[in-house]
Amino acid sequence: MLRRIKIASLQMDANPAPKPVRLERAEALLSQAAAQGAQLVVLPELFNTGYSYTDENYAHAEPLEGPTHRWMRQLAAYHHLYLAGALLLRDAIDIYDSFLLIAPQGHTWRYDKSHPCGWEQAYFRAGRGSFVADTPLGRIGMLIGWDASHTELWQAYAGKVDLMLISSSLLDITNPLYTFPDGSRLTLSEISPFLSSRFSNSSLVFDRMLAEQTAWLGISTVNAMGCGEITTPIPRPRDLLLAFLPFRLRMWKHLRQASSLRMTCSLLPGTKILAAGGQILAELSSDSAEGFAIAEVTLPDQTFISSKPQPPTPLPSIAGILFDQVIPGLMQGEYKHSRTRLNSNSLR
Questions:
Q1: Mean of the pLDDT values across residues 21-39?
Q2: What is the 8-class DSSP label of residue 197?
Q3: Under 8 Å between Cβ of 101 and 87
Q4: What would the mean pLDDT of 250-276 be, rounded to a whole number?
Q5: What is the domain partition of the chain in residue ranges?
Q6: Counting CB atoms within 10 angstroms of each CB, which of 100, 123, 223, 228 has the fewest?
């Protein structure tokens, strides 16, 4: 028998704010969604802290039974719904970007982000791949942000899940504005028209690719996104400027200001709920403020396995090279150094 469930996908401004403030805003949205009959609510990535590339990320990481997890369990029980969202969790000496799914009775399922994007690798390590939450609602697959750009993760869920949930806060780092203390401002198109042209359609992940992979799996997909525009420092900014030198030799004059470099980016749009065929059931526009999309979806009564080949990624190969290999490779050393310092301080 076909099952129907009403799901809400929440959108929150990604600018950092104190946890109590952000949780209060999330609770207000959640309560509105619950009043409209939501049985499952999905929160965006780092909903409890906001998104930035600063060392505060290490301090924000909580143990699994920390305050945000307790908050999620309390609200899931109070509203008698399933609640999901991604936050930074600390396991022993390591930090993960973890997607928690909480049942009304308190049971928790957890997925750790498999593919930290770009500078994220400086603040948490990669998880171990796909995870299926076997819940009373059905079998649920989970992804976080940049994971959705990796076809091998979608493939790992094929024929194994009834619903896909994604918690995201993905910066449009292909269209940044770099600013320096002396007032200099540079865009990627000014630094390298070649690179800029390759990244001209960065919304493909949560537009075309999301629809294609959803239709191929034959199940509904829900994506909750952060929104707005943030300005943040980045780790090891001097390395970034040195990498740009071959494209723009005049970048050398900014090296002395590298430590004060700031990057401004908008978040990619994508708060939406998709039917099994990839059609949009509900969505929020890219310039929407905080709010939620809500729709009723149908869960399959039997496993669907497509006879068609899996759609390839529409993203240019250079995107994977930069954001999965080059920048994360540089950031691994940063993460290990900062993790060691953090753990040493915690033992004092």
A1: 98
A2: H
A3: no
A4: 92
A5: 3-170+202-226+267-346
A6: 228
